[in-house]
């Protein structure tokens, strides 16, 4: 009697299923490797751009120190070709810092204080018993000016004292405006670069002061008075 003998192996369906799994695994692996490469490249360029931005900000500060603060805005742009990175570009703007007028600031302070108190806040006196000067002095800006000796300190119940404080504030605030405008500058540095995959941009803002300019402005104001 003849015995039947079968050879072990995979069927066509099993082979196709195995190839499909292998292909899917390779696609996931390739995407993961490509994502890691892109992330590493982005991180590398971000580090380089950050270091270049830091150095450029130092150069701008040195320029302002040598040339002095200008009354008008200064704007310039270029790239880091000298540093070996022509694909990384910079643009900066230097502008004077000027506070808005006192009336606008008082309105903003009152709005912020009203939002902080809410509709359920208040006691017997409520907001109706609080003067505009009281609201301003209890705000963040009023507290800052109070530390400078211009806010008149805490609000008093006497109408005469409040009027005197308001008058002092109105006379002193323009001096603060002029001093800040003469001695403080805002530097806005924008960095643009291309990683080869996509473009990126970020902005760095720095405020610089000139103590000599501040003393000069205060001396001129004192001489005028």
How does this structure look, described?
This protein has 225 residues and is of the alpha+beta class. The chain folds into 2 domains: 14-98 and 181-224; 102-117 and 131-173, no CATH class. Helices cover 56% and strands 18% of the residues. The chain contains 6 helices and 4 strands; from the N terminus they run H-E-E-H-H-H-H-E-E-H. The protein has helices at residues 12-67, 102-117, 132-138, 140-147, 159-183, 211-224; strands at 74-80, 85-96, 184-194, 199-209. The protein has a 4-stranded antiparallel β-sheet with strand order 1-2-3-4. A hairpin with a 4-residue loop joins strand 3 and strand 4 (199-209). Helix 2 packs across helix 3 (132-138), helix 3 (132-138) crosses helix 4 (140-147) and helix 5 (159-183) packs across helix 6. The protein starts with 11 loop residues before the first helix and ends with a helix. Residues 119-126 and 151-158 have low confidence and may be disordered.
Terminal CA distance: 130 Å
- How many runs of DSSP E, i.e. beta strands? 4
Sheet with the most strands: spatial strand order = 1-2-3-4
Low-confidence stretches: 119-126, 151-158
Mean pLDDT: 74
Q: Roughly how much helix do the residues carry, as a percent range?
A: 55-70%
Dominant shape: elongated
Q: Sketch the topology as an H/E string, one letter per element.
A: HEEHHHHEEH
The number of distinct helices, counting runs of at least 4 residues, comes to 6
Structural domain tally? 2
Look at the helices and sheets and give the structural class. Answer: alpha+beta
Largest sheet: 4 strands, antiparallel
Radius of gyration: 33 Å
> Which percent range describes the beta-strand content?
15-25%
